[in-house]
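Letters spell out the chain; the tokens describe the backbone. To illustrate:

===
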Amino acid sequence: MPDGKTHEMINTAVLIVAVSGLLYLATLKEAILIAGYLNTYTIVTFAVAYLFATFFLSPDLDIESSSYKRWGIFRILWWPYKVIFKHRGFSHNLILGPLSIVMNLALIAIPVLLLAGVQPQSLPPDFIIAAVAGMVLSMEVHIISDNFISGIKGAF
């Protein structure tokens, strides 16, 4: 399976393609439904969330990975996740892996928002959708690249 730096390069390349595609879709007059949702705000939110997930929310949070170490003193917030999930098990499931990480992040972020005086329900839905989509796609790319590389290595 790819190492951390390889995952980061793969994810960055996919982000460039994804943002290019989103910018193109945003300019299409025929795709009124999509173009109505896609704007600079949602595309930037998607890209920032994708990058955040690439470097801080990898499915490898269940081991002593670069993503886990980047949290510094706040990595203690991910300790329960690390203890609960076995590496390349549940955390690397295409559906349950990203879902578990996003839910764990929500359990961390909601109390922080409340302490800061921000009501989570006051956040714009477009922001939430774009941010979650960016994070999930980043994790999906990580999992798919792990499975792809492992499949190639297993074939030889």
